[in-house]
Amino acid sequence: MKSDIQNIVEHCFTHSESEKATVACPVSHTADSHGELEVELAVKRETTRVDVLLNAIRSSIDKKLITDSATVLEIGIGYGQVAFSIRQMYPKMDIHAIEHPGRYYLQSALFLNDLTKYNISLQLCDMLQQDIPLHDESMDLVVFCEVLEHLPPTSVHDVMEKICRVVKRDGIIIVASPNLTSFVNRVMFMSGRTPFEEAVEIDYAGGTYGHIRLYTIDEIRNICNRFHLRKLDGWHYSLPVYCRRWSVSAKITLLLEKIISIFVKATSSHWIAIMRKE
């Protein structure tokens, strides 16, 4: 039986498809069994990612760092799977979100209807050029997940300063991103390749970029320390991945990452950190 979160993630594929992208990786949308398997595993991957974030929020509530009626900001709502899932789990939260205005699906009737259905307040904002359109110290929790890797490295400190401005004192920032030191990335480096994408704007989302810089969890802790953010918790995790167009060697590498990351956490594909503003 599918969970509510998985149903939300599947629904959000309609937005990603409309933007010539998918939640996890390029997927064949044909009716053959391989295409169906890729879609199924892509949904599983994204559902796992959302579940990890919800666990971080649940942990923050259990430790009384925030309440289940907190005021929340998601930086980069994407196709809505995170914000909609937070609303599903915590109906009393006051949820705000921002997204880059270059994402054309943001004006689609389907997406706008979903924002109304889940009661999400969305504002368009290019954080590289603009400040966050919210009052100082107005947010109990900021969700900053799967965005960091898309930012030009020279802009990261400026973006963090903008985020810190809107977080209340003792408020929480949850940061998550792909892991620079994952096993797959290490193999790529050893074979003379790079996990970074070229720093050119994405065709279907002008003004935004692909994965142009990855980080370790320690790097982010050091950056956050400059803004009086203290790391309270954090962990590595790996996401299920499958794509039939990958070579046999690529699939073996992913299988090895899954096994090795059980024993060496820093080789996992992703990390998440919970920070508190002091």
Give a verbal description of the structure.
- This protein has helices at 4-18, 33-62, 81-89, 109-117, 156-166, 183-190, 217-225, 248-263, and strands at 71-75, 94-99, 121-124, 139-145, 167-178, 229-237, 270-277.
- With 278 residues, it is of the alpha/beta class.
Task: Write the SSE topology.
Elements: H1 4-18, H2 33-62, E1 71-75, H3 81-89, E2 94-99, H4 109-117, E3 121-124, E4 139-145, H5 156-166, E5 167-178, H6 183-190, H7 217-225, E6 229-237, H8 248-263, E7 270-277
Parallel strand pairs: 1-2, 1-4, 2-3, 4-5
Antiparallel strand pairs: 5-7, 6-7
Number of helices: 8
CATH architecture: 3-Layer(aba) Sandwich
Mean of residue pLDDT values: 88
- The overall number of domains is 1
Which structural class best describes the helix and strand composition? alpha/beta
Rg, Cα atoms, Å: 18 Å
The spatial strand order of the largest sheet comes to: 3-2-1-4-5-7-6
CATH topology: Rossmann fold
How far is the N terminus from the C terminus? 43 Å
Biggest pleated sheet: 7 strands, mixed
Helical residue percent band? 25-40%
Oligomer: single chain
